[in-house]
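Researcher: Let's continue the batch. This sequence belongs to Pyrroloquinoline-quinone synthase, and it's 250 residues. Same format as the previous ones, please.
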Amino acid sequence: MTGLLTQEQLEDALREVGATRYHHLHPFQLRLQSGACSRGEVEAWALNRYLYQACIPQKDAIILARMDEAPLRREWRQRIIDHDGEREGEGGIAKWLKLTDDLGLDRETVMSGRLALPATKFAVNAYLSFVRDRSLLEAIASSLTELFSPMVIATRVSGMLANYDYVTKDTLAYFTARPVQAKRDSDFALDYVKTHARTPEQQRAVIGALEFKCSMLWAMLDALEHAYLYAKPWPDAFQASERGERQAAE
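Model: Same format as before. Here are the structure tokens for Pyrroloquinoline-quinone synthase:
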């Protein structure tokens, strides 16, 4: 793009990023929701994904601290509450830990992040650096993957419940509230981006920010697929259990 897009054209361009680059197209994601993953792969996915889930309120706190306007801060802080909860045991992170608990993973080990793949750690740190170092407009635009998450969540939940007998609705409780929350948050962020990206340069920047976020999520799945399907994980990372492999084979 060289000229200034209308707000509608900008929205179309952002949605095209999701249609072509969001991780709903990734082979590992397709295997996960179709029942093709071993239990060890499901465990590895949940453990590594925790590191990303845990960084979300940190990311939002960085963005919040950069906002000069109180109304904007009031709107944005709900995201932190959604993930951290108002008290211990509430919020999205606690629900993700319910998922890893149900998979038999040690909670302290999961929370420490020490068994996450190096690429997972690099990706999460890159995301935090992005929202800290780029413009506020780009930081907000990077959150627009939430435009596309509801469609992935529905497919992921139905597929995992149908294909993994060790997964229950309670196990996947994290995903229950996310479609409504993601719709609320993405509506707000999309309106902000469309309103404040007023030059071709700014519009290119927000499209690039969303592409970056998609690439970050894609890279995490690339690492999982390589480590647990085609090669082997980093020596200090989570090793898929023989128990999980045997159950998958059965």
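Researcher: Any comment?
Model: Residues 22 and 214 are 5 Å apart (CA to CA).
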